[in-house]
Amino acid sequence: MLVLEDVEKRYGSLRALAGLSLAVGAGELLTVLGPSGSGKSTVLRVVAGLEQADAGRVLIGGRDVTRTAPAQRDVAMVFQSFALFAHLTVRENIGFGLAARRTPAAERERRVREAAEVLGLAWLLHRRPHALSGGERQRVALARALAGRPAVLLMDEPLSNLDAPLRERARAEIRRLHRETGATVVYVTHDQAEALSLGERVAVLDEGILRQVGEPDEVYERPSDSFVAGFVGSPPMNLLTARVDDGVLRGPGPITLALPANSGLVPHEDVLAGFRPEGARCPVAVDGARAGFSAQVDAVERAGHERLWYLAAGGHRFAVRPAPDARAAPGDTVGVAVDAAAVRLFEPASGRAR
Amino acid sequence: MKLRRPSEPVAARLMLAPYALGLMTLLVLPAAVTFALALTDYDLFSAPVFAGLDNFADMLDDPAFRAALPATLAFVALAVPLRVAGALALALLLHRSSRAASVQRSAVFLPTVVPDIAIALLWLFLVNPLYGPLPAVLGAVGLPVPDMLTTSAGALLLVVAMSAFAIGEGFVIALAVRRELPEELYELARVEGATPGFTFRRLTLPLMAPTLSLLAVRDVALSLQFAFVPALLVTGGGPDRATTFLPLLIYRNAFENGRYGYAAAITVVTFALTALIAATQLRLLRRGRLSV
Questions:
Q1: What is the pTM of this model?
Q2: Which residue of A has its CA nearest to B183?
């Protein structure tokens, strides 16, 4: 449905997008994840036509729209600020695009009602935005985007102006909306939890370069490089330099990780090793275990049933999710073991997964 | 030793005092004196003599006043919409940041800071029927040369045209307000297929309307203030009193005819008239806002 081919975008000397290629299937919900300045909003703006690509092509439904005006691209956009018109009612806001395109009044009213009903706004049609709650405003922005029945729906951090509990509900709302309308959605966010939970696929962007595209589990479990590993997950993957020695990976100080089979590493080779906090077993008895080591508890974090220990060993700090009934206090010494299945290996220079 | 801080109301009063003093001596006091003088005969040489409402009654029979009143209203009716529309149009043309636009913005503001007298003399030269460049250019390309200085309508339009160039303040305000409008609204309009005309009608105009209304209300007084110098120096209030606006009439009665009491009375009428127009505008605007 939407294809980007080697898209380049420069702002002066800054390369916002460096040869980006990406394909979004019809009816797919793709989340684009990246830190601020990664070029993720630029992707949306280039697709919408608000910015022109300096090189490469943008295709929507097989049609080359690289040089087409925004209005002729058959896209709709939902902005972070919602971009509602304060002087217009909800009805007029939702129908803005239809009115701009001179849709006959009867047809316009029908589609405004339809979009409003899908989003549960039918009883608010006469209100102005200032008389709405944050969540309602957000739904008006969504309804406006849907009313035009665009080929591609572009969302630029649409939930970051909502407070946490509302965000959860709005996320479910967008998921439902996508399921019911079958719209093709490109959803930009800097929030990795949002990207993983919402996207059918996730595209991770950094400095204008596409680092990885894949299903959320794949991106989480098998990051394609150390950037993705260090960005996705809360807290992200623990990364440390290690050296193959005697059939195990030796990190700084006492840190020892199991060496995955068929790693292709030769003895004494340096490698960037990573493991997720839940990939470590802790606490364990380390006596005699080949890939186990002792670490000192640096901090203990609790959030309801979620618990996280920050441990220190060999001057390196890393996070683990302890066994459910384990207790520890800062200063305690605990045993940690990381099994081969939990270890991910990256090239030390390029950061690429091996 | 510890300095005692004056309590807040005292501090506030102290800090406001210079402004309050200026306001009293430069504005409130003269206004009060004007209101008092309006009820007297006063020629600056002998003491004022109480005359009751005679001055106001005189106005009704004064052909100069009876000409000045419609001339003033005509000027305000033409100049105010033109000036506000001009400020808006230029603000919309020049709000983007670019080197060219910043030079052009200075150009728009420039006539406002050039002394009125200089502008008046410049225009007098520009429209001079014998050697002025404007008639010369118009004549050279075969266009009719309007009689700017010799017909009533021409002179009125000339002062209106001059006033349309001194719109720097309104321009700056319109510019600032346009720049405050979120860019995302315009991006959304582009994506949704809104034409420039639709965007202007549906977006820019309604969002800027409150500011433009205030500019229009303020401009009733401001445009009259501006018109004084051109009316005095370029058209001399004529021909046939066509540009003898109330401020010029006040000036002539006071400083040329020595009728200070009568001039004060016209001032009071001018003040009342300006207040009335502004109040009417505000009422219309308030009613209009409900139906937007």
A1: 0.80
A2: A83
